[in-house]
């Protein structure tokens, strides 16, 4: 009987801990109802959790209740099955984030995997996750990421030094920059700060690995919405050279003397339409007309320009440059 009672108590403690982790405030009566015990038993179980290092605080009010607060040290955590699987997947793909946490993520993954039930361990082991390429180099210092994230969360202006591309490492830093950071975004293994530049009265994007924050932060600022309202689409548009919509600023249409099956794998986000066994209509875009013409010229085939005239002119200029390059030899 003592063994059975002890097992029941341990199971109830785990259930209580799981509920406290899932919700901020719990009325004592509701906890007692969910656990099928008296409120006095709930109070004793809360005391046992406190002895184990969990900072459970009593909440004052008409109903009374409990809240699991942050403590001075990390107590054991309790995850349900979906959370455990999600955690292991996240740790496996952490190598591609460029945040410099690969070693810590590997150790955390080994710790979590060791305590997983056999059936869950088999599920996560069967999931093969491979990073496409390697993490960005150089990576962002974890402390810098935390500082940037804290400024975004607090709505405080950032003061920072910025290493522009091609600038020597030992060059004297220029005057500090400032930006009102609204988003910290990871894209292609690199971290970017998207913020409002009060000096230029416009949105700016900075690579986090080139930023060295200065302390203290500047004044607080009010929230703004990026153009279009979607930060991922906004960042993608800026990388395409567009000021607003997530589309290439230069788009053209050609007919290639190739089968559509040979064009599609290399068309990127272009639109491919088969016109015959060896004729394909391709609508594509780039950040400039010269870049679009050069990108289309990589197809080893005859090219018929449908439009616009700017694309036809870019091909003409490209052919003149190619002729000069060939004649120079």
TrEMBL record:
Source species of the chain? Amycolatopsis heterodermiae
Would you tell me the protein name for this molecule? WYL domain-containing protein
Q: Where is the composition biased (Basic and acidic residues)?
A: 161-170
Q: Where is the HTH deoR-type domain?
A: 9-68
Question: Where are the annotated segments for Disordered?
Answer: 161-181
What are the UniProt keywords, alphabetically? Answer: DNA-binding, Transcription, Transcription regulation
Q: Which InterPro entries match?
A: CBASS_pafABC_assoc_protein, DeoR_HTH, HTH_11, PafC-like, Tscrpt_reg_HTH_DeoR_CS, WCX_dom, WH-like_DNA-bd_sf, WH_DNA-bd_sf
Q: Its domain of life?
A: Bacteria
DNA-binding found in the keyword field: yes
Xref: SUPFAM superfamilies? Winged helix' DNA-binding domain (SSF46785)
């Amino acid at each position: 009987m003592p063994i059975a009672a002890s097992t029941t108590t341990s199971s109830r403690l785990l259930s209580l801990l799981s509920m406290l982790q899932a919700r901020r405030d719990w009325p004592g009566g509701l906890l007692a109802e969910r656990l099928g015990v008296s409120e006095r038993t709930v109070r004793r179980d809360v005391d046992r959790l406190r002895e184990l290092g969990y900072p459970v605080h009593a909440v004052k009010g008409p109903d009374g209740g409990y809240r699991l607060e942050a403590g001075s040290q990390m107590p054991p955590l309790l995850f349900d099955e979906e959370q455990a699987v999600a955690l292991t997947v996240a740790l496996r793909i952490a190598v591609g984030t460029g945040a410099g946490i690969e070693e810590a993520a590997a150790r955390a993954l080994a710790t979590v995997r060791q305590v997983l039930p056999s059936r869950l361990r088999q599920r996560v082991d069967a999931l093969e996750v491979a990073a496409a390429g390697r993490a960005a180099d150089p990576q962002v210092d974890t402390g810098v990421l935390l500082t940037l994230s804290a400024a975004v969360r607090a709505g405080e202006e950032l003061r920072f030094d910025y290493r522009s591309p091609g600038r020597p490492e030992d060059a004297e830093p220029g005057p500090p920059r400032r930006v009102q950071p609204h988003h910290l975004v990871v894209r292609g293994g690199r971290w970017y700060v998207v913020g409002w530049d009060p000096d230029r009265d416009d949105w700016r994007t900075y690579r986090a690995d080139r930023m060295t924050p200065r302390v203290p932060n500047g004044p607080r600022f009010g929230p703004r919405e990026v153009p279009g309202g979607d930060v991922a689409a906004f960042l993608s548009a800026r990388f395409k050279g567009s000021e607003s919509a997530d589309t290439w600023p230069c788009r053209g249409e050609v007919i290639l003397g190739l089968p559509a099956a040979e064009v599609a794998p290399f068309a990127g986000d272009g639109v491919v339409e088969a016109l015959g066994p060896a004729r394909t209509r391709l609508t594509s875009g780039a950040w400039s007309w010269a870049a679009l013409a050069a990108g289309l010229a990589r197809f080893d085939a005859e090219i018929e320009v449908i439009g616009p005239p700017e694309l036809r002119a870019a091909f003409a200029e490209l052919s003149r440059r190619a002729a000069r390059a060939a004649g120079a030899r």
